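An instance follows:
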Amino acid sequence: MPLVGVRAKADNIDHWKEQFKTHGELFKDQGVSIAYMGAAENNSVLAIFETDDLEKFTEKFNSKDTEKAMSNDGIDKGSVEMFIITDQLVIM
């Protein structure tokens, strides 16, 4: 299953965490089954998504719906970076 990482700056981490959790329908539209989230002290936030359809995820990610959701979450629009996870290292 494809993984996508999204990194950005948030105005307020607690606000971002609460609002992020309200986007279940948007995430479903992106083919997301699991969303992981974390933050650093400098207001950097990270979400990692498992999606069953990378094309659908990317299309919806670039939509007005996602832009509105990020704005509501207090995300600095110019700070958003999306990473397609293409490689892995398996350690045994």
Q: What stands out?
A: The mean pLDDT is 97.
